[in-house]
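Reader question, answered in our methods column.
A reader sent in the components of a multi-part assembly and asked whether the whole thing could be modeled at once rather than chain by chain. We filled in our standard form and ran it. Here is what they sent:
COMPLEX SIZE: two components
ENTRIES:
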Amino acid sequence: MDDRLLALVRGASPDRSAAPSPSGDRSFEALCRSASRADLERMAADLDAWRRTADNFYHRVRAIFLLAAIHRYFLPPHFASASASGSKIPFSGVKLCLERRFEEAIAIFLEQQRSDGSSDPLSSALASAYQGLAFKTLAQQVQKTVRHVRGNQWMFRMGHPLDYPLRVRPELLEGASDGPRPVLCEETAVRLDLSHAAWSDIFFLGMDYPEGAKVLNLSVNLAVHQSRGAETLQARIETEKSKIAPAPPVCAFLRVIDEPVLRLTSIDLGATVDITTIEEVFDFAKDYLGLLKAAVIAAGIVPAGLEGSGHALSEILTRLCGPGLGLEIASQVRDIPKGSRLAVSTNLLGCLIAVAMRATGQTSSLTGALTESERRTIASRAILGEWLGGSGGGWQDSGGVWPGIKLIEGELAQPGDTEHGTSRGRLLPRHTLLDAEAAAATTRRELQDSLILVHGGMSQNVGPILEMVTEKYLLKLEREWAARQEAQEILRQILAALRAGDIARVAELTTRNFFGPIQAIIPWASNAYTERLITEIREALGPVFRGFIMLGGMSGGGMGFFVDPAHKPAARARILEIMQRTKRELQHALPFAMDPVVYDFEINEAGSSARLRTGTEAMFSPEYYLFMVPRWLRQDPRSLPRSHRAELDRFAGRHLFSTGDRPLVAPLMQRILPPPADKTPDGASLRDLLAANGFDSIQHEQIRADLRAGRIGLAQNRLPSTTTIEDVREGDVAEMELRNTLAGARNDDASASGAAALRAGRVAVITLAAGAGSRWTQGAGTVKALHPFAKLAGRHRSFLEVHLAKSRRISRAFGAPVPHVFTTSHLTHGPTDAFLRAHRNFDYPGRVWLSPGRSIGLRLVPMARDLRFAWEEMPHQQLDPQKEKVRQSLHKALIDWAANLGEASDYTDNTPLQCLHPVGHWYEIANLLLNGTLRQMLAAHPQLEHLLLHNIDTLGADLDAAVLGRHLVDGATFTSEVIRRRVDDRGGGLARVGGQLRLIEGLALAREEDEFKLTFYNTATMWLRIDALLTLFGLDRASLGDADRVAAGVRALAAKMPTYVTLKDVRKRWGNGQEDILPVAQFEKLWGDMTALHDVPVRYLAVPRTRGQQLKDQAQLDGWLRDGSAAAIEALCEF
Amino acid sequence: MPRIRKALITAAGPQQRRLPLQSLTDRDGATKPALAIILDEMLAAGIEQVGLVLRPGDRPAYEALLAPYASHLVYLEQPKPNGYGDAVRCGRDFVGAEPFLLQVSDHLYVSRSAKSCTTQLLELAEAEACSISAVQATHESLLRFYGTVSGSLVPGRTGLYLIDNVIEKPTPTMAEQQCVVPGLRSGHYLCFFGMHVLGPVVFTLLDEAAAAARGERFTLTPTLAHLASREKYLAAELAGRRADLEAPFGLLRAQIALGLHGSSREEVLALLAEELAVDSGRR
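And here is the structure of the entire assembly that came back:
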């Protein structure tokens, strides 16, 4: 292999002991950019051969990432000019990828490449398979290390109750006959990181580059600042005086009980279960108690080796506690909402593991603080627990188990370590507590007094960001590497500032960290909400503002603002007010899970610590009883166990009839007799919304009946299996090559006639923006069009703004303002309208129209049959074995949920807006007729003849004169734009169905493999000839004003369109920022099916990927930015 | 190391008080108290004087049963039940400045070689001229009963380890982190056999431990851990097995082990076979 490439794979130095860094003179990017297609193909072949024999694990993984990058970023530009390259992706390889058998998939793709030559589709498949292989290899390595960490191994060996080694401490067995058994209570801080040196706590980074893995984190106690009720700023400042003191945010309770069960309770999630079988302990997603179950396993109470052993849980409990006895463990998060970026769940896991280890004699002392080696064991068990539960965090996350401020650093693996010989670093880092010299008491106090911790209210999945960081690190991109070095330097300077007692300097450094290295590596760590908050708060506070700090992996949720400590109360009230206002303005554009809150916090100098409550004190928290007492009261008093009755008496004596500072009578009554549910935030009930949005109850009942009878459903979406599906033939598709499409740049006839049409104002743009964009925010119910998804031309822009900017550029270039329509629905209309008004249409020179929805559906609880079909019959990406296990457990729970709620019953158990659904984009075009928008447009612009129809997420679609020209010259009713299929382009394409050339939806294909026969993917961008379109509806320009004729025309054409049943995810929010993602059934009619009408002339154009690429998933954004797509879109815009 | 003449046997633990007096049939078919079996093995190995640490008030029962050994026995009393460390410390004056053999009274040892376990240990101690404890590889589920050592193999020697640390009754977690010794089956650790040869320095260390405990109970293990940090201290796997009389079915197992390794082997086998046959017939 080329020496330069070899040096890159090895990370500059061939000496394995040295820290990896990018090659001094040439980086991978520089090498690839200057390489020809043949060079790149040779590099790929060399790398692939080399990786198979490489003995160093990280070199091997890096080689795989380099291969993925070559195929994803560097080879595709070379294919663009060779439009004829047309190899298809073998379905057998795609299927293997879905099964996570990436090596075999790569072999199949490479074989195809050898026979057909390299091509864009094959490179996309190879990129995806190499990336999957790289992450699978990395994950397997971490999992192996977690299992092999000393102190964890025995739990995987232990497979028989006779070998069970643990016993509860005798102190916990005392007091059974004459009084309550003692309660062990553990309290743990959460961690707040001042810097994670650019996500250096990701396992793969720490284990490959321990020298660079450094985190400075604080253990903190929290209390949500109680000024939410105060209306005015002054009132808020007043409430400062009556604040609740911060406490350790997570706690766990444990006691021995007189029943041979494992009773697990999550007090804050309101869930409890009596577990009697070992299998149930390993069923993580069945209820909300997965974290407690993972803790029970990771603490060794039910060792992992017992899974599937067939033994009874009672055998274990007998050995652990004694005959007839069991354990009760409860967890509680004290009012800290989810998404706080303070690693609440990891520290709760650590807290639970600590209490369980103490109770079973795995720590030296039952109460008080923990020793360093015990804390390390808990940290490694927490990593194990997270892996078991199918989640994963960084290695600093259990920092709340330690006290005070600590520097956490990666360590080089030494001979004798399980990691030695595989990775350069150890799995577990070293924790160094900062002493009084490194951070004096006054400095700590000033830090507390200067930093205002907040939860901005956004809920986002940080997972994709961590994957991006890992990939970029392993590719050793120049920019990433420089940023990483800078982040390390910033951390060093923060340490120096703490030593010098200069908190203002700390604030300056954390701000620099956020705007510098963090965003240089991952721009998506920031968002429009955060940046607007920083700007406004900086402006509002003036010199009082000192800086910003991002917490955890990304911003928007947990964050911090540094202020002058002398003005903290006023600043805190001001910040809360700004956050609440900004959230209200952006709540339809960004996924918020809750209203913003401000915390009070203090540094926890104790770490995780425990107390034993005995005698009359032997009780759980008051919140536990608020949750449990109503349940006990509902039971038949004769069947209520004696222990519960005794506990009720104690609770009543202690909390109900005493004159303590927190009377619980009122909250208890609220639990027993809950107040009626509130109306929706905007005051509208579901019934109102249905009436206002054209809900057709007759059609709805028909759909329900059809669904229940099995006449429609996921399986029935498909065409008969006898239908022949073939790829396009020669001449079916015309290739479009776009260079510079502005006026005058091209002289061919088509471009000229396109330009003439634009100058004459004969074309309008219809952007389909009625959908909820379920994939984009996983069902958060926000408006995708308004999402400020990326920075273009210097600031965050929404989809809507980008589309208008393209039309503005065309309007200016051709001297004729383009009418631009956004279709909306019940979900998107109000917010879109308000957004456009607030921004005064972004000063768009032409008319902007909104076309509101006139059809609406009510979501249904899915049929168990359809859920099984989706999850068991349809091919889907498998996860790693542990995550897959968790997912299957979740699927089982969701199928039970559907069956219990009633299959095909109305889905009404959510906010009204989440219960309704738009009925597919076919209706969005029909609505233009029904709601009069098209009529008004034609009245205002009688010269209009053509429409460009495209999806909100197809950013490259614009009024390109050349493409328009082709549409005009060809004279078809519809001109549909397609692109060459890449491996991720799923959902149908252009096919000959029974000989007829048409667009076909993926869910209508009888066999999954048929999709990969199809060279072209449907971009959903289409040019429409207005008059011909009206004819299809049985209308003309004159009859558009006749509402009855329009309705009849729409109904007649709708009857010819197939109805698809689909499953969508909706989020149900509850509790404190908690969310469930539930599958619901809905129906749709899709516009692509119009091409199946026999009497309609349709022309198909193959356009370049940048024009047809859709952004469906936020995880695509980074690749979209890196491969130059973002820059290409920017060039189409005029902001 | 000079020849080892003295031994200490502790029998003052709350569970130990009567167990050593239980009758068992030894390898030669003679029925005698368990403690007598231990004493026979010691005397045969060359021990001349045995100090027996008892609880106050227990002496008459022992004297009555151990009359044949009276000339070799010195009865010592542990005034208060202050732990195993304190019990050993009670032998200080009896032992004096010599190395000594320390055994517990509720374990029996069944050798697999011609030499008894006691002889094996004494020979090793004299050859190595240092403190040495007998150990046995023990499954992690039983760690809660024993002191456990961590260490490394002495180069070129089989079954002989240099002790780094001693931990009292560790959990599997702690054992895995601190007591893994190369060469053992997975999940097995070196646990005390209940038989040690210790130098008189142990008493100095025990005095320190007693002072630190301020009248509270203290065990021997921290003292042995301290010893390991001060001087060469070995652990030896002997050719033999320990039978813990205190464990569930301990007496039964000890009796079977003795029977199978003695002159009545066939009789014991026949007895076991008969019991099994009757049992399987019942099912």
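What stands out: The mean pLDDT of chain B is 90. The interface with chain A takes residues 139-144, 171-177, 180, 186-187 of chain B (CB under 8 Å).
Send us your own complexes using the same form.
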